[in-house]
Amino acid sequence: MADAQIRIVPSVLPADFARLGDECQALEKAGVDRIQWDVMDGNFVPNITMGPDIVAACRPLVGLGFEAHLMVSDPDPMLGRWVEAGCELVIVHAEACRHLHRTLSVIRDSGARAGVALNPATPLTAVEHVLDLVDLLLVMTVNPGFGGQHYLASMEPKLVAARAMLDRHAPAAELEVDGGIGPATIGAAAAAGARTFCAGSSLFADRDDLAGTVARLRSRAREALR
Ligand code: DX5
Fold first, then answer.
1. What strand order describes the sheet that includes 196-199?
2. For labelling, which of 35, 128, 173, 217 has a CA lying 20 to 30 Å from the CA of 135?
3. Does pTM surpass 0.85?
C-alpha cells in the first residue's frame, strides 16, 4: 500500500537534554508524527534517562502525541504517572512484565493505548496471547539502552512475521521499529512491514535540517512500498 500511513517518531535520546522543550517544538515544526520518550532505569538496560516529570514539563509545549518507551524492569508501579504526564501511548517490554496481560489492561484502563516491545532475542510468541490488548507492537532492531547502534537487519524476518500476525489477530495495531533507523535502513524496515519508525541519531544528525531529514525518511519508506 504505497499510500500507507508512514509515521516518523523521533526518539529524544539524542536531543539536547538542557533544552528538551525547545527540541520538542523543533521536532513538531519539522513535521514528525509523535515523540518517543526513551525511559531507562539502569536495570533493565544499563543507561538511565528520565522520569514522568520531564515529560510533563514538555507536554504543554507541543500538540504532538507522546509515547513512553519503558525500558524499565518493573513498569507497573508508574504506569499511571506516564499517562498523567501526557503520554497517549505507553510501551512496555514483554521481557520486563511478570503479568503482561494485566499490565496492558491497566494501561488501557488508564485511558492510554497499550504498546509492547520485543528485544531482538525475544520471539513473537511472547505476545501471541495478548494481541487483543495490543495497540502497538514495537520490534527492536538494536539491543536497547543506547542510541547510535547499528540496525540489525536480521530482525526483518521477525518484522514480516509480526505484520502477518497483527494482520490476522490485531489488524488495527501499529507495527513500530526502533533502533538504527535512518535513510539507509528505513526502506528495508518498511518493506518488511513496519509503518511506524522510531529514529534518534539519524534524525538529529543534521540539527539545522530536521524537516529535510524527516521528509527524506518518509519518502524513503514510501519508495520501498511502491
Ligand atoms: C534503545 C532506544 C534507541 C533510540 C533510537 O536503545 O530506544 O533505539 O530510541 O536510537 P537510534 O535511532 O540512534 O538507534
1. 7-10, 196-199, 174-178, 136-140, 113-118, 89-93, 65-71, 34-40
2. 217
3. yes
